[in-house]
Automatic annotation (TrEMBL):
Domain of life: Bacteria
One Pfam family in the UniProt entry: 4HBT
Assigned EC number: 3.1.2.-
One MF annotation (Gene Ontology) recorded for this entry: hydrolase activity
Hydrolase recorded as keyword: yes
Keywords: Hydrolase
Biological classification of the source: Bacteria, Pseudomonadati, Pseudomonadota, Gammaproteobacteria, Lysobacterales
Residue ranges occupied by any Thioesterase domain in the UniProt entry: 60-133
Name under which the protein is recorded: PaaI family thioesterase
UniProt cross-references to InterPro entries, sorted A to Z: HotDog_dom_sf, Thioestr_dom
Amino acid sequence: MSASTPDLSALIRERLPPALQALVPPPCLLDMQGELVDYEDGRELRMRFPVLPRYRNPLGNMQGGFIVAALDNTIGPFSFLVAPPSATASLDTQYLRPVTSADASITCRAWLVERTRNTLHIHAEARNEAGKIVVLAQSVNQLLGERVPG
């Protein structure tokens, strides 16, 4: 990260109720070794995730669930930056091509399509190192207001 790259965890913590701040960054993001690439306030977030050998399926490609987890680990933080707290109500994905063992990482991008009173509509994509889209996703996140999920 460059000196101009914001501290994503600090930005999210500032916007969360105190009871939720201790879980930022969440263990699932730390486990996947997500790295901030770029953040444009309220518009989009890009994260990079390594394609680790433990994520491979029997064909040697990154298992689809791990690709979706990387997308979810991009959509989730982005949703909290836009309007915390929220919870995923739906996450639809379309697989376009495999992430092969030749790919060292994938880059996920999430952007806001629409915000209503109660929901965020977010689109996302994952790209391989050649810049080709491998997965498209659409998420609806339910805004929880000031309530803390329990």
